[in-house]
Write a structure and sequence with these properties.
Keywords: Membrane, Transmembrane, Transmembrane helix. By secondary structure, the protein is α+β, with helices and mostly antiparallel strands. Helices cover 35% and strands 31% of the residues. A hairpin with a 7-residue loop joins β6 and β7. α1 packs antiparallel against α3. 13% of the residues are buried.
Length: 170
Amino acid sequence: MWARSSDGQGGHYLLFAIGIVALIAGALVWHFGTAKYGWPVAQARVMSVEVECQIQLHSLPLLSRRRSDPFVIPCDQVERFAADNPSRSWNLNRIYSGNVEVTRDGRTVGVFMNLGGASNQRVGADFEVIQNPENLTQVTRMDQAMAETYAGGGLAGFGIFVLAIVFFWT
């Protein structure tokens, strides 16, 4: 399946390419996550909450080469959708988003943002976000910036591990 060179080093080239791609992608994700650490913390208040349902065809990744793309529908239409498609199994995720007022240094801006996957946010709830000082409408949940940093570090670490295998493979 994979192209092999005459000296049998085809696997080395493939692993080298995977390692480089993982290292670069991880470094970029890590950079964008840590770039937000310099942003100041701001207070946010939920003004409205919208819940939508993300549906994706259930498939076992090892048995299926293709994955369906998820799509979003209003949650009140999920039962009808399932009734219209009874022969298939679907994965359902709720997406919580809403209008939020962000206040820092006496300045308030309104933004529409993701409130988190398993959100327990309700109208009037207060929480902290980080806010870009140069673009006040660019805000991020604090846990999201941390997740980007860890994911990027993990992916870069995987790339380094794969490259170490390539260089020490005898």
